[in-house]
């Protein structure tokens, strides 16, 4: 199987936010691409192509040649002046989601384009010589270095922007309008730092919360810390350097060469928005306590993939992304229903969060399980354990009527996400030991 790019890789290529939105719409229905294929060699993609049915009788023909030094080359028969166009982005998105299969020789219109470019031969699928494989590897490394340099330029511009925000004070920062943040986010997208761009856009909603000044300053500080870390990324310890690259939007594929096999208990799921797509984060916990997040995305109107079920435990191999809890299931061996997971106290939950935060200061959520917990209200909604220690509920999870209805006020085991802004309950187990999924919505 050819190595596929992530959604972040692809959306970072978009010339603007409108192109990202349009591409997501075009890619929504794979059946509108009756012709699509891929040719690769030694597990490395060479050329990708597809024909998209449009409003006219003639489909739009799009192709991507991955052998261009530093960046891929694109071709599309549509009249758009944007580069890459929405059809090319949609085709790449379908490929990243596994909706394009290996097809051997490309059709004539693709072969002719490649011949014009002086690239791959029009026919034949014989293996490439070792020197050519080494050349492709060098081109991939050049592309990676070029992207890192572009991200560095974008972060340098973000640093100046942050200085301007602090210099002008917080008086006008409560509700400056979405355009104030969208402009900076668009420049970060141009710099292929889409993940940071999304974080900058999220600043626009902070002015609606009660403690907005401290929240906004904390987010500014985390962005500044990321800029500083990225500037020193080659001098950081390897795990922290990988975390910084990931948070800056430099993708790294899951390491399928070293899968981790364990019996993973499925704790709960949370939904979140990621630009023009919808995301789902499913939390697992291994027998040794290791956390894993299965993250998937879907286009508008569709549900993200759910490879496991809440309230079960699965014997499976997981491949983890470097320096992240994010993982993918590479092989399933068995699955069975199970009762409530092993829970701890509020102190245990906070200790787990502290350890995770030491590895990733930009962490936004972490799975915790609290046993014999109850909910109450005292200047806000809280979860309390038998020791009397308590955690505040996230504003999006209060008031917790669904939880109260399930438990009837009795102590129960709850799996939740702990975030810098409070606890977001995901699953509660009723008195009979059956799991009940809560909303798990992010804001």
Automatic annotation (TrEMBL):
<feature type="region of interest" description="Disordered">
    <location>
        <begin position="120"/>
        <end position="149"/>
    </location>
</feature>
<keyword id="KW-0862">Zinc</keyword>
<dbReference type="Pfam" id="PF04434">
    <property type="entry name" value="SWIM"/>
</dbReference>
<feature type="compositionally biased region" description="Basic and acidic residues">
    <location>
        <begin position="135"/>
        <end position="149"/>
    </location>
</feature>
<feature type="domain" description="SWIM-type">
    <location>
        <begin position="60"/>
        <end position="96"/>
    </location>
</feature>
<keyword id="KW-0863">Zinc-finger</keyword>
<protein>
    <submittedName>
        <fullName>SWIM zinc finger family protein</fullName>
    </submittedName>
</protein>
<keyword id="KW-0479">Metal-binding</keyword>
<dbReference type="InterPro" id="IPR007527">
    <property type="entry name" value="Znf_SWIM"/>
</dbReference>
